[in-house]
Design goal:
7-stranded mixed β-sheet, about 190 residues, alpha/beta
């Protein structure tokens, strides 16, 4: 007799899920940095967000996502560096809380933008400048903080910025690729 181990590798690229969005999401606007294959955009649509923005640096991935979502009036795919696009998105948004999924980073053949391997610190600085204290901010891939792939960005610097955005944020570590791999800052 033998034991059969089945490994399910059919997980979507996004580690965000409807449960996390339902429990921690805030507002009707969703912003993602790092579109990749568009799985998180699909999730935001399914979660009922009215206004969805996703930023992709890679032209090919941007083009693919633009085709996938071309008929969805709730979705806008942006092409460019997340730092530049995030600034522009905040200029056109109504003054209301948003849910952000920060997942832009270098990965394999996909190179980073202006910030190197990970723009998360620059993205958090833009969110800080925006001034709202009630946004929900998810940061994916906590395990990559301090790595060469992320240009040695430190987790403690990200947490410090989250607390500058709102000293009263609750910081949650949620399961993602591995247990505790998603940082979630929320007023809930």
């Amino acid at each position: 007799m033998f034991k059969l181990n089945i490994i399910d590798e059919s997980k979507p690229a996004s580690h965000l899920n409807l449960e996390y969005l339902s429990k921690y999401g805030n507002g009707k606007v969703f912003i993602e940095t790092g579109t990749y294959l568009g799985d998180t955009v699909k999730l935001a649509v399914d979660a009922g967000f009215d206004n969805i923005h996703s930023i992709e640096l890679d032209e090919s991935l941007y083009s693919d996502a633009s085709i996938i979502f071309q008929d969805n009036t709730k979705v806008r795919i942006w092409q460019g560096d997340s730092i530049d696009c995030l600034e522009e998105i905040f200029k056109i948004l109504p003054d209301e809380p948003v849910t952000l999924w920060l997942d832009a980073h270098a990965s394999g053949e996909f190179l980073g933008g202006k910030s190197g391997g990970s723009p998360v610190i620059d993205e958090l600085n833009i969110i800080l400048k925006h001034g709202r204290k009630d946004n929900t901010i998810f940061i994916d891939d906590k395990r990559l903080f301090g790595s060469e792939e992320w240009s040695f960005v430190k987790e403690e610097d990200a947490i410090r910025l989250l607390k500058e955005i709102n000293p009263d944020y609750n910081i949650h570590y949620l399961d993602g690729h591995i247990p505790g791999d998603v940082i979630c800052a929320t007023v809930k």
